[in-house]
Automatic annotation (TrEMBL):
Organism taxonomic ancestry: Bacteria, Bacillati, Bacillota, Clostridia, Eubacteriales
GO cellular component term of the entry, any: plasma membrane
Keywords, sorted A to Z: Cell membrane, Membrane, Protein transport, Translocation, Transmembrane, Transmembrane helix, Transport
Descriptive protein name: Protein translocase subunit SecE
Organism: Desulfosporosinus acidiphilus (strain DSM 22704 / JCM 16185 / SJ4)
Membrane topology: Single-pass membrane protein
Subcellular location: Cell membrane; Membrane
HAMAP family registered for this protein in UniProt: SecE (MF_00422)
Pfam family name, one: SecE
Chain segments annotated as transmembrane: 39-60
Quaternary organization: Component of the Sec protein translocase complex. Heterotrimer consisting of SecY, SecE and SecG subunits. The heterotrimers can form oligomers, although 1 heterotrimer is thought to be able to translocate proteins. Interacts with the ribosome. Interacts with SecDF, and other proteins may be involved. Interacts with SecA.
Length: 73
């Protein structure tokens, strides 16, 4: 018996997968990664923004709750 060969379709799929990951690796090498200092600054900005939006939503929710309580006996 001869050696088992992969079907052509499976080989094409494997080649496409390899090419995809080569492209991904190539793009990751082009990325400008932030420094540790920049990363900490960006993280701080995100935490502050989330805090502000959370407080705003809490105030609006409380206001709507009070308004609806007075409107609906």
């Amino acid at each position: 018996m001869g050696a088992l060969k992969k079907p052509a379709n499976t080989q094409k799929q494997a080649d496409k997968t390899k090419e995809y990951f080569r492209g991904v690796l190539s793009e990751l090498k082009k990325v400008h990664w932030p420094s540790r200092k920049q990363l900490l600054a960006y993280t701080g900005v995100v935490f502050v923004a989330v805090g502000i939006v959370s407080i705003l939503m809490w105030v609006v929710d409380g206001g709507l709750s009070i308004a609806l309580t007075k409107l609906v006996p």
